[in-house]
Each structure stands twice: as C-alpha cells, then as structure tokens.
Amino acid sequence: MLRLGCLPIIIFFPLALIAFWIITLLDVLRRHEDSFKNPTDRALWIIVVFFGNFLGAFIYHLFGKNA
Potential cystine with 49: which of 16, 29, 56, 58 (Cβ 3.0-4.6 Å)? Predict the structure, then answer.
C-alpha cells in the first residue's frame, strides 16, 4: 500500500512530464523554418515529438533544438 508521503511525487512526476512534452511540442511548432537545416526537418521533429511523447521530446532537446 502506498503511503501518503509518496502521493505528491506520484502526482507531480507525470504532470512534469506532460508539461515538458507540451512545452517541447510548442517549441517545435513556433520555431521558424530557417532555424532547421532542411525544410523537412521541422515536420520530422513535429512527428517525432508528437508520437514519441516524452522520449521524443528528450531526443529533440538532445539532437534537434540546437542543430
């Protein structure tokens, strides 16, 4: 059985992951096409972040944001 002390962690962690995913998706959508190397990179990153969820957002921050 879970203790009540774990409840804030159980609530906060998923909310933080969802917020991270939404912020990353908005970053890709708002970023100008000139900041990507190829014209198709933006569409590719939108697909990766949207369907990859948290893992896709993490990969975008590692490889795509500053590329």
Answer: 56
